[in-house]
Protein 1
Amino acid sequence: MGGDTGNGFDKNPQNINKEGAPKKDWTWAGLIEKEADKEVDGVTKKEKVVEAVMDKAENGDVQAFRELSNRTDGAPKQSQTIDLKSEEIAQLAGAIRALAGKDD
């Protein structure tokens, strides 16, 4: 391992970013947030977007409804079912052990 601490990190690196993470003013997220917070006629653009999406969902737009429900309730968890026989499981376990260098 490298560094002064033996774990790959120097205790006092000369190139450390003492200012922390860069501000997000210049990122897409920062620019969108800045624009979304601007007020037009006493209402933020963000509020206008929410209102527009709500109107679409109320009028039967399934994609708008899905977006609203994913944002409020969270996206549904996706699961996958694997149907294996015990012999197949044993073969897979053996292959994993071999890859890990723990061959029995």
Protein 2
Amino acid sequence: MAVTGHWIETKIVHTAKGPHHILKLHSELIAFHHLEGRHSGSHLAETFVSVLERYKVTKKVYKINMLYQFNIWSNVLMMY
């Protein structure tokens, strides 16, 4: 299982015309974990939450995920 993080950094630059927002997209590989056994929703969930807890981002990711829906059935099952 590959877990990646994506976020947008906002920087405000003050110019003669006023503040100007510069957005920078970041993407990082957080973990690459060998997943043994079936790739069921519950097994994916256990592994995913373990990775999130290891990097102490569980609460932050949970709040963000509540804003989005998943199209892949295993990912949907993983979140419930």
Protein 3
Amino acid sequence: MMLAAIFGQPTMHLNCASHNHPMRNACQSAAHRIPALDLKECPMTFDVFGRLLQIERHQNEWLVYRPGNDGKRRPSSLAIPNFIQEQELEQYLTDIFHENASPRHPEVLRLK
């Protein structure tokens, strides 16, 4: 069964010929394809005065998460208004959390 059928998404072929991959002759097999990612759905990561936040846009609303050390993330209680644009997020986070600024963590940074 093709992964595209399982995930309902287009697939992106891995370039196995670029290195000495043991399965490079079987690259056309369905098991050797991965779903293509829509980069718009990938979370943005911000360092907010020393604390990490992940933010993603889903169906015209912002979802905010706090990533944990165990690789899991939990929803944050922070609400970001829908009218805030992606390029305005750093300033919005600075305005909301400015009291958490310190000499060690003086600003909000977008990490990815």
